[in-house]
Write a structure and sequence with these properties.
- It is a single-pass type I membrane protein.
- Component of the ER membrane protein complex (EMC).
- This is ER membrane protein complex subunit 1.
- Belongs to the EMC1 family.
- It comes from Urochloa decumbens.
- There is one protein chain.
- The protein is built from eight helices and 64 strands.
- A hairpin with a 5-residue loop joins strand 37 and strand 38 (511-516).
- The strands form 16 sheets. Strands 43-44-45-48-47-46 form a six-stranded antiparallel sheet, covered by helices on one side. Strands 26, 27, 28, 29 and 30 form a five-stranded antiparallel sheet that branches.
- By secondary structure, the protein is mostly beta strands.
- The chain is 11% helix and 43% strand.
- 34% of the residues are buried.
- The longest helix is centred in the C-terminal third of the chain and has 31 residues, at 954-984.
Length: 985
C-alpha cells in the first residue's frame, strides 16, 4: 500500500491555489478603472448673455446665462465649468449682471425674484421677492458708484414699477409704482451725477414718458410726457447719452428722441431712406458714441447718429454676422466687434468707424453654422497695448473663445438640448492589417509597457501617470470603432434643438461626427425651422450588407402646424448627408412602420394637416410592399387641445391625382372626453422594437396566465380640469385621475379605473401586457405609482394538456381586434417617495431578462426599480406557492435602495429623457440619459448570468490552470518516485 503524500506537498498545492485566487481578486480594484463602464458629461446650453470678470490675480472667468435656464461660471483659459446652477423651468432667468466685482445678480420669473450669488464659488448670498405690477420686459440695472465701492443699488423695472435693492444684503431701499395707465418702462439710465436716474417708458404704444428720479429715495424730480405720431413697437435702444432710437409698430420708421432737462424733441426717419428693400425682421443693436447696428439675417449695417437730424449708413457687411455690445476702453473710446460667418473677426472703435483695430480670419469647423452672438473682452498685452478676445455663440449652440486669430477652446453645448435619440451599429472589423499599422502598434506597445513598468516601480511622474491612464483608455476594447460580439459598442445618434445631428461613441462619449443640417438651419429673425424626430432609415443585412446604415431626420420649415416638412437622410458612419428634400406637405404625425423594401429601407408614413398619409421612400418596391399590408394598417391620433382620440384606416383615394404615394385616411372611431370633467394628460403605447420572450406566465400553483400582447394597446390618462395645474392647486374633492386601456383598432375601452383625489403630472410606461403610471395623491399627500396587468382569457382553454395533445387548441388561431376580447385585469397602487421627471423600461435582445423600471427622479438621478415590486398580485401574507414564485410581501410603499441608482452619485441636470438600448448579450441593456447633462452606463437587471465581467483576466486564468497542471505533474512524479522507493525497501 502506497504511503499518503507528505504534508508539505499539500501545503504547497494549497498555497498555489490561494495565490492564484488572490491574484484574480486583486485585479478588480485598480483605481484607474473607476468610470470605465459609464461616462458623464456636463453642459450649459446656448449662451444668451455673458459677462467677463478678468482680475489681475486668480482665475479669469466669464459668467454666462443660457437658454436652458443655467447660470454658470467658466474658466476663461480652458472653458471648464467652475460652478453651475440649473434653475427650474418654472423660474425662467431674465437677466444677468455683476455687482461690486464679487456678486453675480440674476433676475428671474418676470422680474419678481432677484438673487445674488458669490462669484468665486457660486453660493447664493441672498434672495429677494419683488412685487411686480406686470410680468413683461423686466430690466436689471446695477448703478455704478465712482466714489466708494462699498454699496451698489440694483434697479429693477417691470411694467410701470421700479424697485431699488441693496446689493449687499438684498434689502429693498425703495419701490415705486407709477400711476400712468398702460405704462411700461423700456430703459433705465444713470446720469453722470450718480444720484439721478432716468426711466424711459411707453404708455399706450404712442406716448413717451420720461421720469427723473432720486437714486437714494425714489422721489420723482421731473416728469416729462410726449405723444408721438403712430404706434411704437416697444423696441427702444440708446443711441447716445441723451438720444433714444425707437422703432414704430409697422417697423418702417425710426424715431430719434432727444430728452433734455425740460422737454422731449424727436425726429422721424424712414428706414427705406437708409436701406432699400430691408426685410421687416431686422434688429437694432445699441453700441455707443452715436453708433447703432442694424442687423438682418444676411447683412449688418452700421449707422451713425447725427443728433436728432437723422442717421447715415457708414459701413455695410454683406454676410450673416453678429455685433457685440460696446466695450469701454478709455474715457473717450469704446470698442465693438463684428463676427462674420467665416469667422471674420473685426474690432472697431466707436469714435472712428472707418478704421479697424483688428481684422482676423479664424478657421473653425464648417458644421457650426453662422455666428449668433459675440461678447467682446479686452486685456493688456505685455507692450501695454490693448488685446481683444471674444466669446462667440454659433448657430449650432456651440461656444468658442477666439483670441489672436485662433480658437482657444470650444464647447459643444448643443448637446444640452437633445430632442431625440436613435442608435446605429458600428462597422464590422475587417480582416488584414497593414505593415505600417503593425509597426505603429508595436511602437505604441513598447512605449506603453515602458510607462507601465515605471508606474509599477513608482518612478512615473504625474504626467506619465496620466499618460498611462490615457493609453489604457485608448487601448480599451470599448473604445474601438468596430462592433463587438456583445453589442456594447454602438453609436448614439442624437438630434439637437438647433437641427444638428451628433454621433456619440458609447465607449467614452466622444463625438465621432457632427452635421448641422442645411435644411434645418434656423434663421435668426424669420421663420425658425424645427427638428422633430430622428429614425433609423436603413439597417443593412443580407444582400445590402456592404452598404452603410443611415438615419432619417424629419423636421418642419416653420413653427406653424401647416409649415412644409423637411427630410434629411444621413450616413450613420460618416454623418454625410445622402439626400434631403423639402416636402410639399406639412408634418403632423410620423408613423414608422415595421415594413422594409428590397434595399432594406424602412417605410414611414407622414400624416399632414389635411389628414392625408404620405408614404416614404417613394419607390415602386416600397409601394408594392405597403399596398400588400395596407388592409392591416391602422393608426390613431391624440388631440390634447380638443380632448379627442381618433382611430384611422388607410385607403387609396381617387381624389388625389398625380401622387400614387399619397393615401387618404378614414376615421373609424373617436373617443370624445367631456372637457368639463376630464382633460387628456398623457398617452403611451408599446415600443415597436420591444421583444417579448413568452406569452404565458406561470404562477405559483402551476397555473398558466396568458398575457394580452396586442401591439394596438394604448394607455390614456385624463385628469379633472382643476387638477391639471400644479400640485395643490385643487382640493381632493375636486381632483380625479382616470386611466384607460384602449384598443387602437376598434376604439374599444378594455379597462377603466378612477383614482379619486389624484392629480398630475402623470408619467407612464407601457411594456408587454402591463402599464405603470405615476401621479400625486392629494388625500394621502404622497406620490403614488399604480400598475395594471391585462391577461387574455380567450386562451385559458389551452391549459388542458389533453387538448394540446389532440390538437384542439387555439394557439395558432388568428387574433383580431374586432372580436370582443375576454380579458382579466389585475391592478394595485403603491406609495412612492419621489417626484418623477421621466420613466422608461429596460429592453433586452430576447426579452428573457427581468424588467426594471428606469425612473428619473426630481433629484435628476435615475433609479432602477425591479418590476417585481410592482406586481399587482403582491399580498401581505403570501402563500408558500407565491413565495416560491418570487412574489414579494406587500408593503404600502415602494423601497428606494441607494445602490439601485443607475447614475450613482452623478446628477443629470434638467433630466428630460431615458433611453434603454438592448445589447446582443441578453443579460445587459445600455442606458442613455439626457438633459442639460448626458449619462451613459450598462445595466444588468438580472446580473450578468450569461457572461464574465469585463474585469475578468483570461491571462491569469490561463496562468492558474498552467500552474495547477504543473503542480499535478510534479506531484504525480513525486508520488511515483516515492512509491518506487517504498517498494525497494
Amino acid at each position: 500500500m502506497a504511503a499518503p503524500p507528505r504534508r508539505p506537498l499539500l501545503v504547497l498545492i494549497a498555497g498555489l491555489l490561494l495565490i492564484a485566487s488572490l491574484a484574480t481578486f486583486a485585479e478588480a480594484i485598480y483605481e484607474d478603472q473607476v468610470g470605465l463602464a459609464d461616462w458623464h458629461q456636463k453642459y450649459i446650453g446656448k449662451v444668451k448673455q455673458a459677462i467677463y470678470h478678468s482680475q489681475k490675480s486668480g482665475r479669469r472667468r466669464v459668467v454666462v446665462l443660457t437658454e436652458e435656464n443655467v447660470i454658470s461660471s467658466l474658466d476663461l483659459r480652458s472653458g471648464d465649468i467652475l460652478w453651475r446652477h440649473v434653475i427650474d423651468k418654472n423660474d425662467p432667468l431674465d437677466q444677468l449682471s455683476l455687482s461690486l466685482g464679487k456678486y453675480v445678480l440674476t433676475l428671474s420669473s418676470g422680474g419678481t425674484i432677484l438673487r445674488a450669488w458669490n462669484l468665486p464659488d457660486g453660493q447664493m448670498i441672498w434672495e429677494t421677492n419683488l412685487q411686480a405690477s406686470a410680468a413683461s420686459n423686466p430690466q436689471l440695472h446695477v448703478m455704478s458708484n465712482n466714489k466708494v465701492a462699498k454699496e451698489n443699488l440694483v434697479l429693477v423695472s417691470v411694467g410701470r414699477w421700479i424697485c431699488a435693492v441693496s446689493s449687499i444684503d438684498g434689502s429693498i431701499s425703495w419701490e415705486k409704482e407709477f400711476s400712468l395707465d398702460a405704462l411700461e418702462f423700456k430703459q433705465v439710465l444713470q446720469s453722470p451725477e450718480n444720484d439721478i436716474v432716468y426711466a424711459v417708458g411707453i404708455a399706450g404704444y404712442s406716448k413717451l414718458a420720461l421720469y427723473q428720479l432720486s437714486a437714494k429715495t425714489g422721489e420723482i424730480l421731473k416728469d416729462i410726457q410726449e405723444s408721438l405720431p403712430g404706434e411704437l413697437s416697444g423696441e427702444i435702444v440708446l443711441g447716445s447719452d441723451n438720444v433714444l432710437v425707437a422703432l414704430n409698430k409697422a417697423r418702417s420708421s425710426l424715431f430719434l428722441i432727444e430728452f433734455k432737462s425740460e422737454r422731449i424733441s424727436y425726429n422721424r426717419v424712414h428706414v427705406s431712406d437708409l436701406v432699400q428693400d430691408l426685410p421687416r425682421t431686422f434688429k437694432l443693436q445699441p453700441l455707443s458714441n452715436g453708433v447703432i447696428g442694424l442687423q438682418t439675417s444676411s447683412t449688418v449695417f452700421l449707422l451713425k447718429l447725427k443728433n436728432t437730424d437723422g442717421l447715415e449708413v457708414v459701413q455695410r457687411f454683406d454676410q450673416p454676422a453678429a455685433v457685440s455690445d460696446a466695450l469701454t476702453i478709455t474715457e473717450k473710446d469704446e470698442a465693438f466687434a463684428v463676427a462674420g460667418s467665416q469667422i471674420e473677426f473685426i474690432v472697431k472703435f466707436t469714435s472712428d468707424i472707418s478704421s479697424e483695430i483688428i481684422r482676423e480670419q479664424v478657421n473653425i469647423d464648417q458644421h457650426r453654422g453662422n455666428v449668433e452672438k459675440v461678447f467682446l473682452n479686452s486685456y493688456i498685452r505685455t507692450d501695454k497695448s490693448h488685446g481683444f478676445r471674444a466669446l462667440v455663440v454659433m448657430e449650432d449652440h456651440s461656444l468658442l473663445l477666439i483670441q489672436q486669430g485662433e480658437v482657444v477652446w470650444s464647447r459643444e453645448d448643443g448637446l444640452a438640448s437633445i430632442v431625440d435619440v436613435t442608435t446605429s451599429e458600428l462597422p464590422v472589423e475587417k480582416d488584414g492589417v497593414s505593415v505600417a499599422d503593425v509597426e505603429h502598434n508595436l511602437f505604441e506597445w513598447l512605449k506603453g509597457h515602458m510607462l507601465k513598468l515605471k508606474g509599477t516601480l513608482m518612478l512615473a511622474s504625474a504626467d506619465e501617470v496620466a499618460a498611462i491612464q490615457a493609453l489604457r483608455l485608448k487601448s480599451s476594447e470599448k473604445n474601438k470603432m468596430t462592433r463587438d460580439h456583445n453589442g456594447f459598442r454602438k453609436l448614439l445618434i442624437v438630434l439637437t434643438k438647433a437641427g444638428k445631428v451628433i454621433a456619440l461613441h458609447t465607449g467614452d462619449g466622444r463625438i465621432v461626427w457632427s452635421n448641422l443640417l442645411p435644411s434645418l438651419r434656423a434663421s435668426r429673425f424669420g421663420g425658425t425651422p424645427s427638428a422633430l424626430r430622428i429614425y433609423q432609415w436603413q439597417v443593412p443585412h443580407h444582400s445590402v450588407m456592404r452598404e452603410n446604415p443611415s438615419v432619417l431626420v424629419v423636421g418642419k420649415s416653420g413653427a406653424e402646424s401647416s409649415a412644409p416638412g423637411v427630410f434629411s437622410i444621413l450616413d450613420s458612419y460618416s454623418g454625410d448627408e445622402l439626400n434631403s428634400m423639402r416636402l410639399d406637405h406639412s408634418v403632423v404625425q410620423i408613423i414608422p412602420l415595421t415594413l422594409k423594401d428590397v434595399s432594406e429601407q424602412r417605410l414611414h408614413l407622414i400624416v399632414d394637416s389635411n389628414s392625408n398619409a404620405h408614404l416614404y421612400p417613394k419607390s415602386p418596391d416600397a409601394l408594392s410592399v405597403f399596398l400588400h399590408e395596407m388592409p392591416n394598417l391602422y393608426f390613431y391620433s391624440v388631440d390634447i387641445q380638443t380632448n379627442v382620440i381618433r382611430g384611422y384606416s388607410l385607403e387609396k383615394s381617387h381624389d388625389i391625382k398625380g401622387d400614387e404615394y399619397c393615401f387618404s385616411t378614414k376615421e373609424l372611431w373617436s373617443i370624445i372626453f367631456p372637457s368639463d370633467s376630464e382633460r387628456i394628460a398623457i398617452s403611451e403605447t408599446r415600443k415597436m422594437n420591444e421583444v417579448v420572450h413568452t406569452q404565458a406566465k406561470i404562477i405559483g400553483d402551476h397555473d398558466v396566465m396568458y398575457k394580452y400582447l396586442s401591439k394596438n394597446l394604448v394607455f390614456v390618462a385624463t385628469v379633472s380640469p382643476k387638477a391639471a395645474g400644479d400640485i395643490g392647486s385643487a382640493l381632493p374633492e375636486e381632483a380625479s385621475l382616470v386611466a384607460y386601456l384602449i384598443d387602437a383598432v376598434t376604439g374599444r375601452i378594455l379597462h377603466r379605473v378612477t383614482h379619486h383625489g389624484a392629480q398630475g403630472p402623470v408619467h407612464a410606461v407601457l411594456s408587454e401586457n402591463w402599464v405603470v403610471y405615476h401621479y400625486f395623491n392629494l388625500r394621502a399627500h404622497r406620490f403614488e405609482m399604480a400598475v395594471i396587468e391585462i391577461y387574455d382569457q380567450s386562451r385559458a382553454d389551452n391549459k388542458d394538456v389533453l387538448k394540446l395533445i389532440l390538437g384542439k387548441h387555439n394557439l395558432s388561431a388568428p387574433i383580431t381586434s374586432y372580436a370582443r376580447p375576454e380579458v382579466v385585469v389585475k391592478s394595485q397602487s403603491y406609495f412612492f417617495t419621489h417626484s418623477v421627471k421621466a420613466m422608461a423600461v429596460t429592453q433586452t435582445a430576447k426579452g428573457i431578462t427581468s424588467k426594471q423600471l428606469l425612473i428619473g427622479t426630481i433629484g435628476d438621478q435615475v433609479l432602477a426599480l425591479d418590476k417585481r415590486y410592482l406586481d399587482p398580485r403582491r399580498s401581505a401574507n403570501p402563500t408558500q406557492q407565491e413565495k416560491e414564485e418570487g412574489i414579494i410581501p406587500l408593503t404600502d410603499s415602494l423601497p428606494i435602495i441607494p445602490q439601485s441608482f443607475v447614475t450613482h452619485s452623478h446628477q443629470v441636470e434638467a433630466l428630460r429623457g431615458i433611453v434603454s438600448i438592448p445589447a446582443k448579450l441578453e443579460s445587459t441593456t445600455l442606458v442613455f440619459t439626457y438633459g442639460v447633462d448626458l449619462f451613459y452606463t450598462q445595466l444588468a437587471p438580472s446580473r450578468t448570468y450569461d457572461s464574465l465581467t469585463d474585469e475578468f483576466s483570461y491571462a491569469l486564468l490561463l496562468i492558474t490552470i498552467a500552474v495547477l497542471v504543473g503542480a499535478i505533474i510534479v506531484t504525480w512524479i513525486w508520488s511515483e518516485k516515492k512509491e518506487l522507493r517504498d517498494k525497494w525497501r
